[in-house]
Amino acid sequence: MDLFTSPLFERLKDAEHVLIAGAGGGFDVFSGLPLFFRLRELGKKVSLANLSFTRLEMVEGRLLAPGLMEVDGQTPGPVHYFPEGLLSRWFQDRGEHVPIYCFVRTGVAPLRAAYEALREKLGFDTVVLVDGGTDILMRGDEVGLGTPEEDITSLAVVDSLPLRDKLVVCLGFGVDFHHGVCHAHFLESVAALSKQGAYLGVTALLPPMPEVALYREAVEYVCERMPRAPSIVSLSVVTAIEGEYGNVHRTVRTEGSKLWINPLMSMYWAFDLTALARRCLYLEQLRDTQTSWEVSERIEAFRNTHSPIRPWVDIPV
User: Which domain of life is it from (predicted)?
Assistant: First the structure.
């Protein structure tokens, strides 16, 4: 490895089919779009999936297995919230057919079955789990975990799959502050993973990059068509890419709050998924969960019994 080497792309060099999957629901799959476009340019086969917050019972997509639905640009769905369908429609408007595979928000056991069904259908050999934000790195004893239920469910599932390689990529340093995440604890986790050789560095998303331009276009296209629920995370990242800094707002959803748009927000942070999963203190307790409610209950039970919970620490700079 040298300064001309990207550890992330070195890990992906021998992949034949990469599944880029949103870990935490919502717009998380959008965070993987720059990587999606770059891998396609490199000749890789790439598919997109997302743990969905969409009410899939209202979507007329193709049900592939329990808890797994394929949608595309022609798929009817809820008017006010359907980011996966709108993303596929954006591709369609560009003359491309790119389906999005939607996982129902559920427990680890049924989500693993849905991932297995998708692997049987597509034949992917590598998964990149993408997180809009950085709270997937919280191991469980921090003062704030953010919104761990979906992230750690996805992490537990992908960790259990027999694959050539498994990676985690985060985008949006700082956006989890409003969910109580202490970013000193995030950086501490990065350091711990680095000590294990599991930290794969950062990659800046810059405006001149064609992959970044397409990502910005997709985010703006979908958010304009979802005015009641645009993505705070995605719009914050786009704003950071554009060079804004500080308390800059792109949606009325953030009015009344103070944002910290910053250059670190527009960087990919990449990690080995297996090492990250091993650091989570409660992941094994989720393996047999059947519902998202059960996941929440077990995380709460862990928090109520684990001691000590590490207090907030300001970044000393």
Answer: Bacteria
